[in-house]
Automatic annotation (TrEMBL):
Gene3D superfamilies: Electron Transport, Fmn-binding Protein, Chain A. This is Flavin-nucleotide-binding protein. Residues 37-153 form the Pyridoxamine 5'-phosphate oxidase N-terminal domain.
Length: 205
């Protein structure tokens, strides 16, 4: 039986939530800025999202030592494919549809970083050698052309208490640093970070 409460139009959806917070729109970039670069270099884990020829979606974990995803330029990332079970779900998907999304996480950090773009699979010997670990080169590397980058606030991780009492690592860019970069320095990052915990606590639910 059809759900009589189903939301089936964009107008109905927007009426339930209201307009987007302006800062959530301002923070979107088309390149890897300095805070995004530093966040990626500090991240030991990301989720790679892909879509196959049959329309099925996959979200696969990728992890290694912090910085395992290399920032080749402000518009390109390199993600090594480490040893696995050879299902190759994500790689098969990319052959059919090169659109990908990455979600970077850092233990102890509430913010996450979202990156969207287009991926190619390469066996470039120099790139594989540069991304080798413990004497083992990845069989392939994803070269990802960046099209969209933005940080996600800490609400989801605060609600889930995912990191427990894990302390925030030193040097990881803050939400204020991301916003300051997005607005070309015309933003009070220190004040934003100082008031952040109370602001988030007041708006978790």
């Amino acid at each position: 039986m059809a759900d009589p409460h189903a939301v089936t139009s964009l107008a109905a959806l927007e009426a339930l939530y209201g307009p987007a917070v302006e800062r959530s729109l301002q923070k979107v970039r088309r390149d890897i800025d300095a805070p995004s670069r530093d966040f990626i270099r500090a991240s030991p884990f990301c989720v790679l999202s892909t879509r196959g020829a049959d329309g099925r979606l996959h979200g696969t974990p990728r992890g290694d030592a912090p910085g395992f995803v290399a920032v080749l330029s402000p518009t390109e990332l390199a993600l090594p494919d480490r040893r696995g079970n050879n299902r190759l779900d994500a790689l098969r998907d990319i052959l059919a549809d090169p659109q990908v999304a990455l979600l970077f996480l850092i233990p102890g950090v509430g913010e996450t970083l979202r990156v969207g773009g287009m991926a190619d699979i390469t066996t470039d010997p120099a790139l594989r050698a540069a991304l080798a670990q413990q004497g083992q080169m990845p069989a392939t590397v994803l070269r990802i052309r960046v099209e969209e980058v933005f940080f996600q606030c800490a609400r989801a991780l605060l609600r889930s208490r995912l990191w427990g009492e894990t302390p925030r690592p030193a040097g990881v860019p803050t939400a204020g640093a991301f916003m300051n970069s997005a607005l070309n320095g015309a933003f009070d990052a220190e004040e934003y970070d100082r008031t952040g915990p109370a602001r988030l606590a007041a708006n978790l639910y």
